Amino acid sequence: MAASKVPAADNTLRILSHLATQRGPVPASSIATALGLPRSSVYHLLTVLTERGFVLHLPEERRYGLGLAAFELSTGFSRQEPLSRIGRPLLAGLVDRLGESGHLAVLHGRDVLYIAEERAPRRPRLVTDVGIRLPGHLTASGRALLATLPPAQLRALYPDAEAFVDRNGRPPHSYSELKTILNRVRHDGYATEDGEVTADFASVAVSVRDHVGWPAAGIAITFPRGNVPEATWPELAAQISEVATELSRRIRGRTGLD
């Protein structure tokens, strides 16, 4: 490969690409070793990236991970339509089979941003119209996405109690409560919410991962609480997972919470 005419820019992008493939924050020394760069150069570039919010520095652990601005770039791709265009036909087919409404959402900081919605016939309008944001920790799609994040990234999103928006008085209200919910999501392989967003409505969601394992989107089915018995939610999740797997394949990614 020809040498870059702008080495600083090239090395900056290499650092971001490297961090995107890691399972969690890593030391600057390991970044330098992996990329074959001088440590001093890596530290200088990391300092700038941290100031701009693209990298998160964990001083106690002496490690660096992706920051919120990097997530903004990721969700910016989604907002520019490719992901919604790929996912909308798959979502429409799922809604047709199940007879309940569905949506596709992406992480946007601590929120989920809805990029596609398919409403089933004779089903009420939901609050998840395209372009709407809701607190990720309260929604099924948000929980499915948050459960895929490394602990350090999750903690950075929810540093204190003020990060937890209270919509209907339902948990979580703290980081420990959120961890309990997300541990259940990882165990079950899917996420749920039951009245946390809208009274008498529930949702089941599965995450879609991109090619390096990061959460690309959440697919959720939302329904009046009495329409779908809770005992059948695992079966519903399995059908959503099939669609998530196909969407993941189409964006050259993977699905699941492992």
Automatic annotation (TrEMBL):
CDD domains for this protein: HTH_ARSR
SMART domains from the UniProt entry: HTH_ICLR
Residue span(s) of domain HTH iclR-type: 6-68
Keyword DNA-binding: yes
InterPro entries noted in UniProt: ArsR-like_HTH, GAF-like_dom_sf, HTH_MetabolicPath_Reg, Tscrpt_reg_IclR_C, Tscrpt_reg_IclR_N, WH-like_DNA-bd_sf, WH_DNA-bd_sf
Gene Ontology MF term list: DNA binding; DNA-binding transcription factor activity
PROSITE patterns: HTH_ICLR (PS51077), ICLR_ED (PS51078)
Source organism superkingdom: Bacteria
Entry keywords, A to Z: DNA-binding, Transcription, Transcription regulation
Residue stretches making up the IclR-ED domain: 69-253
Biological processes annotated in GO: negative regulation of DNA-templated transcription
One Pfam match: HTH_IclR
Protein's recorded name: DNA-binding IclR family transcriptional regulator
The organism of origin for this protein: Glaciibacter psychrotolerans
